[in-house]
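Batch job 17 of 40 flagged for manual review because the log was empty.
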Amino acid sequence: MNSFSYKIVGLLITVFFVQIALGQNERPSRSGHPSDLESLKNLRRFPCGGNVILDQRFNADSIPGDWLTYDLDTLSPRSEILFLTGKKGWQSVIDFKDPDSTNRVLASASWYADTIGQSDDYLVSPKVMVPNNACLSWYAYSQDKFFPESYEIRISTTTPDPAGFLQNPPVLTVEAEGDEFTYRSINLSDYGGQEVYIAFRHTSLDKFILALDDIRLAEVEVFDIALRKIEPIITKNLLPTEIVGSIINAGLDTVSFDSTNNMLIVHYQIDEEEVNTDTLYRTLTLVPNDTVAFVHDSLWYPGIKTLYKLKVWISGFGTDDNVVNDTIGRWQGVGVQTNIEKQLSEDLISVYPNPFDQRINLEFSSQLGANQVELDVFDLSGRRILRMNAVSTLRRQEIDLGSLEGGVYILKVTHPDGRIYSHKILRR
């Protein structure tokens, strides 16, 4: 089968699976490829964090006005893919990997009409000041896995045209991009303190389509191991549960861990009582923006309380340039998913104003139905201060909390079906 036949087959398969995926509710993971040594479940890539200098997500149906494009090859895509790309060079298209057809990416074709040619298409950022500890990240994919795309990242310190970029060698060359969303990042600290233009140059020879999205430039610490996330806990009273989370290399340097010197140690504490410690005895290398999952080896057995103060932190890896993100603390409920932001994102209950002076308003969604709910107010030690009832059919109710002293409290709303909604409130 020749190149043309393979691409037609690949195109038909792509269209077929996109049509099937459009009927599914579940979106594909956007966490990127795993490293060669770890499974996707345990090791993932994320964009550069820290102080963001440039963050372009390309959500509009055209390329942002302060970004430039150059089509130096001047070749036109084959007619068979015009419904995917529409025109020559870089352009905004519906994300080929998105079953909901809501995300947009920038794409550049390399399968040309009438000739076998090499792409030479530049996508150029606006001028940016590069911070001293500079991390550039993006994600990309080849639309057809049988025809992997190649591209370069180039920097110009003079002009935003191709001549300016060709004055310096590429800072990165990707020879064969994967066909799934692949997060990539590079260290641009060599350009710290300079105003530059950043170019993504498509260089494929007779391939198919390259896609780019979410280009970010940020200032990060050189060495920064951080506790990225603690998974919400769903359990019942007296039943054992695991503390599960992930650790991220949020710095610029690649860091290697072993079981003797540079170790990863995870601690957790409930209600400021006994500290539980788990050393992750494994050899592991984390490049910038890699994360590794952990399951703490000490089970937690919650008692009969409904709210607990959970603190998780990491140590064991020497001097860290940013210790603030080594710890996560939160209130943990029992019997429900208790990540506060996720609970309130359902828009079932609104609490305002917050902070408040004397009174606070509760607004209930009609989805709660006609039910009497319990309202409890706890201080930060878990002690209940107030209890009252409310009727959810009264869409907005004003609650007098003037008896509380100034400070932070937890407002808990308990539905008759057992669902609990918690929210931090602040009395001025």
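Reviewer: the log was empty due to a logging misconfiguration, but the result itself is present. The first helix runs from residue 3 to 21. Unflagging and moving on to job 18.
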